[in-house]
Amino acid sequence: MDSYQRNCCEYITRNYKCIILDQIFFMIKRIWHGWTSRQNADAYESLLRHEIFLNIGNRNIKGFRGIDLLRRETGTEVEFITIMSFDELNAVKDFAGENYETAVVPAEAAILLSRYDRTSQHYELLHSEIS
After folding, report:
1. Of 104, 97, 126, residue with least CA distance to 32
2. Half-sphere exposure of residue 76: CA atoms within 13 angstroms, side-chain side
3. Within a 13 Å sphere around the CA of 81, how many CA atoms are in the beta-carbon half?
4. pLDDT tens digit string along 62-77?
5. Which residue segments constitute the domains of the chain, with CATH numbers given?
6. pTM of this prediction?
7. Hey, which residues does 86 pair with through a beta bridge?
């Protein structure tokens, strides 16, 4: 742990903001976008929540920390964003394969989507604040 992290650690500990610091300072966020018609939106959301996300969790990928789902209506379409959290790039590769930037879209999901990103973006989490 470097001095910046140590100082953050001390601040966070003093203010009871966090329990596990490693998960804050060393994390990769994988972001992906997909769009459905309004008619397919509820079915797609249900598929994600009740099948796809469960299947991902059941893979027990070391370093996978969770997934967030966002939804927004945009005119005639509904946009979905997934944000996956991983401890390190190797965990992302365990999920997506060696060509880890390629989107992972199961066939049953692709049928419901009108369009989707063919690649996912990956970001290092630099700061996370809890209030």
Report:
1. 104
2. 2
3. 10
4. 999 999 999 999 999 9
5. 26-124 (3.30.70.100)
6. 0.80
7. 28, 64
